[in-house]
Amino acid sequence: MTNIPILSLLIFFPFLGSLIILFINKNDKSYKNKVKEIGLWTSIINFFLSLILLYSFDKTETQFQFVENFKLINDLGIYYYLGIDGISLSFILLTTLLIPVCIVVSWNKINQNIGYYIASFLMIECFLIGVFSSLDLFIFYIFFEGSLIPLFLIIGIWGGKNRIYASYKFFLFTIFGSLLMLLGILTLYFYSGTSNLTLLINTDIPFILQIWLFLSFFASFAIKIPMWPFHTWLPDAHVEAPTAGSIILAGVLLKLGGYGFLRYSLPLFPEASEFFAPFIFTISLIAIIYISIVALAQTNLKKLIAYSSVAHMGFVTIGIFSRNLEGLQGSVFQMISHGLISSALFLSAGTLIERIDTKNINNFGGMFKQMPKFSIFFLIYCLGAISFPGTTGFIGEFLVLLGAFKINFIICIFAASGIILSACYILWLYNRICFGTNNYKGIVIFDDIYIIERKTEKGNLGEHLKLSLVRFMSLTDDSNSLVGKIFANCAERTK
């Protein structure tokens, strides 16, 4: 397995899938089914490839593993340099897990430009895996910025009525921060003569230069998380995004900022990180407390969950800049936990919203009687969101609080108050949706969710997926098909 470029395969296999989708004849009667099937099975195969990565990963090794390194631009000394550690592996697995979920969630919900829609999610997967495996600053920046474009299209084309405003707000916020980071990367490159992360870690950078470089990287990562007061784009993006867009945004894209702090800011600018730690603790506590209070006042279902994400990511930044083992472990665990829990909450919200076409919490109620299975699952997700003991959220935030306690007792107290506030707005949300009565005229008798079987327009989803697998395999076996030709050419080049 060591001779196989597994990281490049994980990056470019979804890219290949997206290209195949874009070249399928749109006049074909089975166009929509082919697009969905290719997208789904491409993402599923990539998930199993990531499991191979997990199986082959050596937990005792402290160096980067599965390294791929060759010169990309000779004159500039820029390398195609990939490698992962345990942190990278966790986020790659999270990405490959959520992309198939996004495609399945959209199976019968998206009909307009379905090919571009599925291709966008495969491109997001390509860029995200690239971000988590890049060890060259320029390659990292390309993948980091590339992830912005597909999500911009997903929100702007398939979003709600205010999608144009939300997509451009998201784009302008993130591109501004990214341009500042690019200036920092260029400065670091001209100072050191390299963009290789492993070499830069051992480079002695003056304190003043560290300050300016840290701020340039901070501008991008803080907006991506997002930290207060750079958070205002997130609620609008979530409200207007389709359900699958909210899942991948909350599940993975928000983690790019935290990953950037861990991978680049702390090791490259240690003195600057220590210098700015009190400032970051302050704005993180504001995010936890103030944003939680703002969440209490929300009546929009998706906006409330979006504000809860901002509050929970405040724990992540506190854990990172505590710079001790407990805090760092807690921040990583919290990001993975939040990626799963927030995705589940947005999936649940989408399930309700799509039934009656309203996001107003006041229009729901009594769902436990109509949808008992859904209500039980929703309760589990809500308990995870409030860090209830026994859930993944509890482990992450407990470790963060422990790390903060070692730094400053006051930080720990104020951060812990955020857990109480999160319990207030999450339990209020669950109570308003699942209990009581509802007189909203749009309410009908909802069908509950199906654990094993879910109906589609043409029958059982399980049977449909079996048929789609057969079709997908037939496409790859047919030497005259586009897919067959691509695979044949790849095989020929490897000989």
Structural description of this entry:
The protein has 495 residues and is mainly alpha-helical. The chain is 73% helix and 4% strand. It has helices at residues 6-22, 31-56, 86-105, 114-133, 137-146, 148-158, 163-192, 197-200, 207-224, 233-240, 243-253, 255-268, 270-296, 301-322, 325-356, 367-370, 372-385, 392-407, 409-434, 461-477, 482-494, and strands spanning 65-73, 78-84, 455-456, 459-460. The strands form two sheets. The protein has a two-stranded antiparallel ribbon with strand order 1-2. A two-stranded antiparallel sheet has the order 3-4. α15 (325-356) crosses α18 (392-407).
Based on secondary structure, the structural category is: mainly alpha
Mean pLDDT equals 83
The geometry reads as: globular
Task: Supply the number of helical segments.
Answer: 21
Helix-strand layout with pairing:
Elements: H1 6-22, H2 31-56, E1 65-73, E2 78-84, H3 86-105, H4 114-133, H5 137-146, H6 148-158, H7 163-192, H8 197-200, H9 207-224, H10 233-240, H11 243-253, H12 255-268, H13 270-296, H14 301-322, H15 325-356, H16 367-370, H17 372-385, H18 392-407, H19 409-434, E3 455-456, E4 459-460, H20 461-477, H21 482-494
Antiparallel strand pairs: 1-2, 3-4
